[in-house]
Amino acid sequence: MDKPNNNNNETVESTSNQPPRADSTGDDGSSFFAGSLPADVVKRVNALRNLQVEHHKIEANFFEEVHALECRFLDKYQDLYNKRSTIIKGTYEPTEAEAKCEFDGDDEPKNDEPAEKTVGIPEFWLQVFKNSDIISDLIKEHDEDVLKHLIDVRITMQNEENYRGFTIEFEFTSNEFFTNSILTKQYELRTGPDEQDPLSYEGPEIVKSKGCEIQWNKGKNVTVKMVKKRQKHKNRGTIRVVTKEVQTDSFFNFFSPPTGREKSNE
Asked: At a CB cut-off of 8 Å and minimum separation 6, what does 130 contact?
């Protein structure tokens, strides 16, 4: 049997003839591709990454203009929103022409006059929220009596050079639960890439949100509940029952967002 040839020298020579290789790193320092790439290929990949950053800068300008456009059109919508609010609240009664929907065909509404005259559209926003796939899961049974007092939801938008965002306002009638007439939540947007991680850009982000403080009346805070717990005395070994206030699920936790940076697409 022939001896196997010792090819170590050939291997060394073959390796020395290859161009040097370098790791190509991604945004977080991990390998861009599995394994290593030749140094000249890494240069080309990094050039593409720089092109992508420039692309994101242009895209950020696009989203800034979209936000500005939304602000301008909000002004155009405002008259409609104001009239909607007056109809819901009952301060304006639509005319016969305004109340007829041509797209409904010839179906006439039933003329069932209630014993007491109804003002506006009672519980309108509660029903809107309960019919929303996104919001309905947030509403718990103990929230509904509070939300029956919600009579308007509106938005204001901010488009300053150093600040872009929006604020949602919730207007309530006088009620037994809290003294606020309007609850608010503010959102701050970042439309451009993160300077520390530009390649992760996916569009505008909510970077901060702030809810207002709800002035709950005593015993009416639906975001907490009282629970009873048994406690054992360390020394005597006796058992006592204590009542403790704990957080509970509620739509109104919406106004107490987590502290720190939030990250979400607009």
From this structure: 136, 139
Which residue do the tokens 């720089």 mark? Answer: 50
Domain with 125 in it: 37-92+120-195+202-219+250-255
Residue range 130-187, pLDDT digits in tens:
999 999 999 999 999 999 999 999 999 999 888 999 999 999 999 999 999 999 999 9
pTM exceeds 0.90 for this model: no
* Total of domains in the chain: 1
Asked whether residue 54 is assigned to any structural domain, the reply reads yes
In a domain, 111, yes or no: no
* Residue 3 is assigned to a structural domain of this protein: no
CATH code assigned at 163: 3.30.1120.90
Q: Are 176 and 220 in contact (CB under 8 A)?
A: yes
- Model confidence pLDDT, tens digit, residues 40-99: 888 898 999 999 999 999 999 999 999 999 999 999 999 999 999 999 999 999 999 999
> C-alpha 52: how far from its chain's center?
27
